[in-house]
Amino acid sequence: MSAVTVTAVDRSYGDRAVLDGVDFSVELGEFVSLIGPSGCGKSTLFSLVAGLERPDSGEVLVGGAPAAPGRAALMPQKDLLFPWRSVLDNCALGLQVQGVSRREARARARELLPTFGLAGFEDAAPGRLSGGMRQRAALARTVLQGRDVLLLDEPFGALDALTRTEMQLWLQKVWQEHRWTVLMVTHDVREAVLLSDRVLVLDPRPTRVHHEVRVTLPRPRTAETLATSGFVALEQELLEHLHGSRRADDQRRMLSR
Ligand SMILES: Nc1ncnc2c1ncn2[C@@H]1O[C@H](COP(=O)(O)OP(=O)(O)OP(=O)(O)O)[C@@H](O)[C@H]1O
């Protein structure tokens, strides 16, 4: 059984079709990335998998059952840490919302924080953390919810290039240890290849998956992997498909004028 199955999903807003026949699946413990141009419906797709919205037609299954709130944990683009709560209390929040007592939620968060490089920062206010640390805290809060699937929406988009690479390598390490099932949206082709088992390219307006790349590069992938011919070839293949879909999108827009 797949962790996530999206079958023939359509979604429109008014008379505007955003998703049209989207099909894909994510296997248990797999790391899959979605890439596509801005505004192509990635966040809409995430809302459907998170069970926050329903498709007009088609089916979204998480763990074999229809998507519903509470099956997948969503880490939004902005970290949304509350400035007035400590790092520990921010991380515990996801569990408290599920009805876990504050004491128990804090204990579980305290246990996990060292893995996320946040030992010693439990009582700090989020404002004292670097950008990378804030993202690790937001990810800890997401992971702590103990859901079947993690949905990461451009988790490192706001970080500088050096911190971003560090965070990607760190995420790969903790993912290899824990084997969460991850579906990640990113605009960064390099990030997608570095982290994923498979990368799906979305063709916009209306959106569907139009190309899939399987990344079989051995793990752990390192900073050196980025320069290998195998890595560069995959990056190139994805860029060609991404630009191809962008060109097709421009043509469609020209024709509809
Ligand atoms: N609630 C809504 N009502 C009307 N239109 C919407 C709604 N939500 C999204 N849209 C439209 O659907 C399209 C897809 O939006 P969505 O946010 O899913 O794209 P995205 O790929 O996540 O964008 P980005 O990469 O910029 O974050 C956009 O054109 C957007 O304007």
- Mean pLDDT score: 92
Please name the CATH architecture of the largest domain. 3-Layer(aba) Sandwich
In whole angstroms, the N-to-C terminal distance is: 45 Å
Give the SSE order as H and E letters.
Answer: EEEHEEEHHHEHEHEEH
- The proportion of strand residues reads 15-25%
The CATH topology annotation of the largest domain reads as Rossmann fold
Please give the count of helices.
Answer: 7
List each distinct ligand once.
Answer: adenosine-5'-triphosphate
Question: What is the total domain count?
Answer: 2
Q: Low-confidence stretches at least 5 residues in length (pLDDT < 50)?
A: none
Radius of gyration: 19 Å
How many strand units? 10
- In helices, the fraction of residues equals 25-40%
CATH class of the largest domain: Alpha Beta
The chain-level structural class is alpha/beta
CATH superfamily of the largest domain: P-loop containing nucleotide triphosphate hydrolases
How are strands sequenced across the largest beta sheet? 6-7-8-3-9-10
Biggest beta sheet summary: 6 strands, mixed
List the helices and strands and how they pair.
Blueprint: E1 4-13, E2 16-26, E3 31-35, H1 42-49, E4 57-62, E5 65-66, E6 72-75, H2 87-97, H3 102-112, H4 131-144, E7 149-153, H5 161-178, E8 181-185, H6 189-195, E9 198-203, E10 208-214, H7 229-255
Parallel strand pairs: 3-8, 3-9, 6-7, 7-8
Antiparallel strand pairs: 1-2, 1-4, 4-5, 9-10
Adenosine-5'-triphosphate binds at residues 13, 18, 38-44.
